[in-house]
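Run log, item B.
One chain of 459 residues. Sequence copied directly from the ordering sheet:
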Amino acid sequence: MLRILLTSLGLLGLLATARPAAAQQVYHVELSGQPLALPTRTFFIKQVADGRPSRVPIVGTVLRGMGNVPRPADLQPSPALALQAVCDAQLPARPTDQPVLAVVRALFVQENMTFTTEQARDDLGLDFYLLDAAGQAHFALSATETVASKGMETTGRHGRQLVQALQACLTQLAATDWASAAARPGVPVADAVAGRPGDAGPAYPVLAEAGRRAGFYRTFLDFRNNTPIETPALVVESKANTHQGWGGSAVYLPYLQRPDGSAGEALRGAWGFSDGKQLFIYQRNGYYLLLRHEDGFRFLGPSGPDPQAMTTGALLGGVAGGLAASASTSNQPTDYSLDLRTGRVAPLELATVRVPAVERPTQVFVYRPRAAKGPAARLRLGAGQPVRELAAGDYLELAPVAGQPLQISLLPLTGPEMPLTVVPTSEAPTYLECQPTGAAPLRQVDATTGAAALTKIVK
């Protein structure tokens, strides 16, 4: 028994030691190779832009290793470029297609753990704009999709699920009336991406308190669009929540109304409901009151089990220990945020940035266009660094220190080095184009030009 206990404690020590190191590693979600079919489309995605409040590459967390240690997840070389590559490869432009700007408003990768299984969930929210000949963007549609699955190990599913979510959003776009979209006010692309006033963007009817209707919502979109099922009506009862830590809150119990006006069968299978004034969301076997918060809603709901606590309990006490650890870390009052773009529910402190401990990286991309001529270019990426080669249609990614000058030199076959000094920033990637035979063999380009060129290379 002592040996088993010491072995368990040794495993716990290993987990505790490994956790900080593993947390620094980033898991790259791979989208390439995932099928995307849209036979009825009348459009092509001319540009994907990142319109998220925080434009960091980190899009969520996954659980890795025996200890289910949370690790940040990203899309390379960036979320917008990764999605653009999928669209370019599988939905190429045709002469009669409408050009569309897709703006990423929300993109989340998440894994949750119960005692026996993991759940992989992927949320994607896109705003679509029709682009006219003058380059103006006309709002067409706001689409959202969530794809989730369960299994013993789910991390490898995120690439497929994100592409499935993308396909679902594009399927909604396939039914767009392009004439109606073109008639809406147009704005510059930069304003559409930034979501500035005047972009004729989405308005969510549920936010208009005066127009709320009593009934229950089958789906999140029914909730957002304020289209509840009104018949049969609901009878809502409430009682004090007596569970530990929940003093002062209430338990809400909705029932389907009988013809005589009394409470009948309990409401089941609903996303939430409204009594005509207040809104409620279903979470973990109960309904909870929604309150307005910034651009969406918040609510006080029960917490889930902590994966690390469950692993610890299982190591020390087998199944019973894991269940005990799960119970001790569950059902405590927790503030949650409801994102109206995707329907995603997340703890309030993680609502804006899923991995607050991961800082915004500093990225420098040095690329060589596919059409470049001649042998591979020879580059020195920083003073005293070894020489790297860059072939046509390829790129190099650097992660220098923000704000510090970085010297990159082109080494021609004959003659002296040709240096270029840039000062990278963490606010946006820095793009350098390498054209050894051109008038400017090595030059810095603006973000739009660089991102477009890198998209062609990535796809």
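Observations after the first pass:
- The chain has three domains: 23-203, 206-302, 364-458.
- Confidence is low (pLDDT under 50) at residues 1-24, 305-329, 350-359.
Flagged for discussion on Thursday.
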